[in-house]
Amino acid sequence: MNSPAQEPQRLYRQLAQQLRDWVLASGFAPGERLPAERDLAAQWGVSRSSLREAVIALEVEGAIEVRTGSGIYVTALALTPAPNPRTGAAGPSDWGPLEVMQARELIESEMAALAAVHASRSDLQALAKALTQMKKDIARNQVPRHGDEAFHMAIAKACGNSVLLDTLHGYWQARNGAIFERLSDYFEKPASWQTALTEHETIYQALCEHDASAAKRAMKHHLKQTHKRYNAHWHSL
Q1: How many domains would you assign to the chain?
Q2: Mean pLDDT of the 21-34 span
Q3: Measuring CA to CA, which residue among 40, 92, 89, 85 is closest to residue 66?
């Protein structure tokens, strides 16, 4: 695999390009099933999370089809020459989802601690409003996306630091990228939404008490668990 200095692509895009080239060179037919996710990861010497992002990138392009509970299948598009690889920095929408979650865990836990110190009454009201929106969406069996984003952005705003606010805005731009959206389709379910809501409520309580240590711990726990949810095993893939 080329180094970033040689080919400034995201790791998962490098892997997606190599995987597509391998499918083409190996003589797979349209509709044929690829090896299981764990076997592909072992074959390429990468983590399952990196392999998963590459697989979803190819699915978004239409080169493969993921059938939950069945496997990963080749499409006719995979048997055509791959498009020219992207080079350079493409922006937040091209960031790898699991890398974003790792960065968020590191940065937002510190943001929560800072917000606990500086949060005003209006900041806490904004957080409460966001939680209410999340609850309403979950009750309607809808992804609580808007309330979730509003909650985290309210914490960033409470920090009183415009750079942190812009940083978190970039993370949410990434959240709206096609690969992140597809990953969410697979792994965001009603049970996980309810769990995430409980985690948000714990963060909120720590902020209301202006307990920086508790806020940091609660945010770290929430984002670590979110990362685990997005990195859960696909059944039979």
Answers
A1: 2
A2: 91
A3: 40
